[in-house]
Amino acid sequence: MSNRFYSIMQSIVKMMLTAVIYFISAKMVAPLSLVESGSVFAIWPPTGIALASLFLFGYRIWPGIFIGAFALNMTLTPLFPSVQIAITNTLGPLFGFWLLQQYSSKNIFDTTKAMVFFFLSIILASVITASGGIFALWSHGLLPQSAVVHVWLGWFLGDLIGFLLITPILVSVRIEPSFMLRLFSVEGLLMLTMLFLTSLILFGPLAFFDLVNYPVVYFLLPPLIWGTLRFGSAAAVISLLVVAFVSIYGTIMGYGPFLRNDPNQSLLLLQSFNGMFAITILLMVSIFREREFVQAELREYKNGLEYLVDNRTRELADANKKLQELDRLKTLFIASMSHELRTPLNAIIGFSGVLKTEMAGPLNDKQKEQLERIHKAGENLLSMIVDVIDISKLESGSLPFIAEKFSLKALLEELIAERREKFRNKGLEECLLIDEDIYLNTDRSRLKQSIGNYLSNALKFSEKGSVTVSARRIDHRVEIEVSDEGIGIENSDIEKIFKPFERLESRLKVISGGAGLGLYLTKKIVTELMGGEVYVKSLLGNGSTFGLRIPIKV
Ligand code: ADP
Fold first, then answer.
1. H or E element: which one contains 551?
2. How far apart are CA 270 and CA 251, in angstroms?
3. Which of 73, 83, 409, 498 is the most buried (most CB within 10 A)?
4. Distance between Cα 503 and ligand 1 center (Å)
5. Would you call 471 helix, strand, or coil by DSSP?
6. pTM of the model
7. Measured between alpha carbons, how far is 12 from 8 in angstroms, rounded to an integer?
């Protein structure tokens, strides 16, 4: 119960406070009334006070605004118009506040959009208060028809400037209280003094030459921008207030660049300047603040990103270390295994070879055939092991590259000669096509191994016709091809064959040994070691051409 009583009392105090401040702020600008009507003012702070109190206390404060407006108008106009004016003077700020709440809960200084929305809301609120007020005066015969438009404009501008100058002060105190305090430092006071003096020179009796004829109001900009940059919204709102009061009093006293023959015209002109000036500066503050927010967000994002990158880099480094260790173990394993396998294999190949010569005693045909199979299987296994070792060395980057100058023709002849017996056994024709001898400067044994793979495959996968080895120079490169008239390769299989362990289905697959590593190794040697390229052209059943192009000199 006591809580409820307490909160009701609190609400009443807030309402009365609003009403009193509303009343006093209006009385403070009493000398600024327009000539045609004693109840229309060049600046009307109460509208700003009303909107600010709505910001502070919420919708429930409206009776305070109404009481303030009514009491004030009773001192200016009779009862009926006073009630009417008090109603529209309450409705205007209420409508403006409602409209602002519709947009977002964002602070008016936080984004440019929120600030523009604030301007739109207070323009509409001023239209309501000015129209309602003028209607009340006119309908009760307190305003001649001829003055309606003129006075409406004055009322509208006065209310708008009231909103523009007063409401942002409250918002600023709430969002940047530290700036408000800092403003009262040496620099802040210096800036305010400079602004005050500039305003006095421009609008007051200090003017030492006829300023009416010069567009000198821009002199206000430097101190204003200085303040805004250093003290944010606090400097902007206080400075605008200073400029507004000095300029209005000055103009009414008969000074300044807005002076015209008709004092009302002077005030209206000045008010449009003050309005535009306030809009520009307030917009500038919101742009600065928005930029600061974006910068802070970017900084945060950047820090987060840096942290993330650091973490990922560390993880990658760890993973890399593990991989390196694994790689080292793999190489070690392969090296020791190859040694362990090669020793017995060499014994198998060597002794089966010796046995085949029948030096150790005669063999019957069956024994000879079985021995031949052991010997061949041993050789296949050895070449496979050699290929695996080469691949692992290439992958770990430890395969040595020994460049030397040599004759390509001699190399190709050597390769063919080494397989002459196989050519003869399979009844295949051999052919070497090379116009001029080309001298290469590259790793001879690796090139021999690569072309040897092509040649061995051509022999493996052909049962008729010829096998042709050809070479030609193309600018700084040499192109070497091995063509056969064998089983050929299906189009869809072509891209598979340079991959490891790929062997295509064919009748010859079973007869011809191999692990599907030869072409993979060839491609790796040619591309990674020699900076060249490999290719294949083939038609199923119509033979194949395997080729490579490498620089003549590496
Ligand atoms: P391997 O010959 O040890 O099986 P390769 O990597 O040298 O391994 O060859 C991969 C596959 O490509 C072979 O199994 C074969 O199916 C196909 N191939 C290679 N050369 C030829 C060719 N000259 N004619 C037809 N097919 C071929």
1. strand 544-551
2. 8
3. 73
4. 6
5. strand
6. 0.57
7. 6
